Amino acid sequence: MTEKIEKLKQVLSEAETVVIGAGSGLSTSAGFTYSGERFEKYFSDFAVKYGFHDMYSGGFTPFESLEEHWAYWSRYIMINRYMDPPKPVYKDLFSLVKDKDYFVITTNVDHCFQKAGFDKNRLFYTQGDYGLFQCSEPCHEETYDNEKQIRAMWEFRDEMKVPTELVPRCPVCGKPMSMNLRADHTFVTDKDWHKASKQYEKFLQTRNIINNPDASVGVCCSHKVVAVGFNTLCYDAKRRGIKPSARIKNGEQEGDGKVLFFELGVGGNTPRIIKYPFWQMTEKNPNAGYACINFEEAAVPPKIEKRSICINDDIGEVLKKMV
């Protein structure tokens, strides 16, 4: 295990570009557990009444009223979004990549990356954010910051209901608000979501990780992009002394550019968002490597096995040894 960690540390130090893909296992390692002692501390009353034994199951429970629904969800959001994670896992990760040309794509919705110092222009939260409300219908494609309302509900955390006047309602149609989480077809992708999606795509294009033969000038990380044939590099990267990744020929990368796809805590629930694309991009780019840290779930397909490092261990413990 120590040998693998040292190898990963070396590969990370040599990489010009790091694409981080993060799943729930990363936040679990940081102490955001959804069952056990932490669940009992905040939700024992709901567990007695409804019989569920973890926060995730509670999220699908049909509560008796909106007042009770938001009593549950306000606690849930407060401890998983507005409280800091118990362990410094995200800060350790940031210390490893802060001087790199990085981008993060994550299915996590707890805002831990930004709290640890990651640049919001280099983050794509694909599945929403605990810190946002949306219309439950939805009647329009906008989201709303909820911190003030959640903190007001938190004042009634010793009760299993919040006052009726604190139940959030859509300012447009008056229907109940819901969380901005990708659970079904009602999930709202607002302008910020689309902006982040385009920034991620542009990041991959301007580092020549994916092919974009029509690219000339675009926007990357809020900076103008200069293009030379297939080789594009944002001015921010130039300023920081980062070399462009390799050129692309027939849709594949060639040259000296080194890219690391760094997957952390991604399980089998949503592999099409991070895991499968990371495998595919690694396979198509000979100068790319793939690393995965995931407790008892790290795996890699045979085609990229020689360019991969898989560590089946606690993410936080591994990162601590790398810092």
From TrEMBL:
SUPFAM superfamilies: DHS-like NAD/FAD-binding domain. The keyword Oxidoreductase does not apply. This is Deacetylase sirtuin-type domain-containing protein. Gene3D superfamilies: TPP-binding domain (3.40.50.1220). One of its GO terms (molecular function) is NAD+ binding. Residues 1-323 form the Deacetylase sirtuin-type domain. Zn(2+) binds at residues 135, 139, 170, 173. The keyword Signal does not apply. It comes from Treponema denticola SP33. The lineage of its organism: Bacteria, Pseudomonadati, Spirochaetota, Spirochaetia, Spirochaetales. Keywords: Metal-binding, NAD, Zinc. InterPro entries: DHS-like_NAD/FAD-binding_dom, NAD-dep_sirtuin_deacylases, Ssirtuin_cat_dom.
